[in-house]
């Protein structure tokens, strides 16, 4: 049973031209109504632009906008301008006179269509005009270039009239075959959405001039035989081929297109979610119905055939909403349905709680829908005051929008894989989109949440109150941010906009979301902190300068790589006073110790906390805090490991606005970070030594990470510096490290790989200090009585000569000799205001290799952790097996008996065999020196006891 006026043409029963004419008139009636609605919504200048566009493509006149050359394609099929259009053209140039095309003229522009939200409830003052320029298929490439130039010039002219117009060149023949370029414009969805784009075209396009779509005349039940049906219409001359335009059918939509469409809408939805949610839900509906999809364009055409010509119900956005509404109601997802309704209301931009500002037809249509939704005055007022929404409303809305976008992404991925339509291209797009969603919305520790992805234009507050508040646990406090200016007693009666344990995290959140701007005034209740208004204002100014909004656009290149740190801002001592007693007494310490890590004679550490704010390549803003005496060290290690992991050093800025020595503190931290980065991130990496208070910290690379070793005092530092190393690693000193041990600092800076360096310094009371940096940078030091340079150096040089000879004998003759160079330097004392300095000395040429009493020790492993020692004095052997605990006393007695003079001088080991402990020969010189020192200490102690008895 047919409805009144329904048309159901059948090819086999014959089709009369009158029926086809009736169908064309129905479509054109809707078309003209929509066009009137478009024009009603435009300003006078925009109205003139849209009315003139068909004429500008129909003619090619040098006095009118869009003229490129005489060869530019022109002529709009079947177009004849009315008097109003011609008056508009003459208003542009009075000398213009329209001339009709001569008989037989072949128009090169087949049709102009306005696409998108124009003439729908979704049209707004901000809507631009997207126009398809359907041209003759036989146009040469050069002609297409000319036509593109014409489009560009018309767009530029329209912009001067306050009208944003985008033209898209369409070859109907290739389009109907699906042969499209990858993108119509930079904002287009690409070739993977051919049928979904065509679906949108058929239900939204408004014919501005030229040929009507052939698709109009094909009944829905003949969509599957579209080619045969349209061929017969033309071949049997029911219609004229030159009057219609064939862009193809809507019989089926490939499953892969839902993935492509969803990807595109999700991409746009991250920044403008309201515009995308509706289309995402439609894509979900289609995917859920696949493969038996009844697309909206077919519903639209069926309604026209059935003579159901209510333009309001055929509004593309209303039809879209109706389909989604049925889908969500059937699934019982009423919360999602409410979100869809809000999206449609916002898209329509009709404020029903007010009585002005919208077209009558839009207002009437929206009122009808709102009555169906049973929205009350309060909800309408809330929606109409959306621009006044503050943090709470925006945060709540964001949760739902993000939930919807995330749901769509998961559904999209699942559908694509279940239908096996995820190819290499959109698999990569899915991955990129997943990263984009993660970067924009994923919550993680330290990440500043962005709550306003296109929900309201502005979240800034003119007045705020910042307060340090106690938590339930009295030992823990938190910072709260309130709207308005509140006194301390009033705080308990108001809910804060945001709470945070750390002040910088709260300020970064306020800045990132635009809650605070340059005009905001903030009342401060610092509580037990040392925060001042001066510091707060400087902190906010710093955030605005270092991370200006909006953040730079996130590129595909950035997303294709793992996120990398781009900028790091360190804020030192936020809300803390490093010298509280000085502040209370209004005094300032005067001392030569100005290092912030060891300030004054007390060597105070003035760096109490560091707040780190990092902006990475995915536009994520991350905040972390370090506090306590190790704050600087922990922050430094994390910064260097971050740089090492990503193989790039982020841009670094350090600021401090605390009450005492702020500039000096910030400068110290920045200098330290920059000086440490070079050696520790170099290739090969070096070690870096710094001093915090009276303690030393040695930073070095261990495996893939840079870690710190705490060395509590000077003795522990020396033991560590003397410990064996697998390979040489340079040691770099911080500017202030070892300031009270200048001689050691001077020595450590001289390290060289493969070189044994001997340093000596003369001390008071006939004492000297010998230091050796061995071939791997290990340090050995010893103090002894000084008589002259020869007696000081010869025993050591003889020992080193013996060790070198022993190593040479253990190597193959074909191997690299690898002989270590030995250098000698004396440390000259500071004088005349000059610091300690080094002077090179030549090695003694005599007495090193011969002419001395040889004392050789052989050390072997004993039971457990013990060692067995044998000592040879000019080849006479003394062993622990023979003499037991008396070994050293027996050897000392023997050596004393061999001396010709009674002069008192130490016993020196001249050679040492450790081959039983080190079969591979990997021990370094410093280890030999330590074993030698232990043996010499035992022998000399025995000798002293013997002399004491005599």
From TrEMBL:
Molecular function (Gene Ontology), one example: adenylate cyclase activity
Domain Adenylate cyclase class-I N-terminal: 20-216
InterPro entries noted in UniProt: Adenylate_cyclase_1 (IPR000274), Adenylate_cyclase_1_N (IPR024685)
Coiled-coil segments on the chain, per record: none
Pfam families listed in its UniProt record: Adenyl_cycl_N, Adenylate_cycl
Protein origin, superkingdom: Bacteria
GO biological process terms, semicolon-separated: cAMP biosynthetic process
Protein name stated in the entry: Adenylate cyclase
Species of origin: Halopseudomonas phragmitis
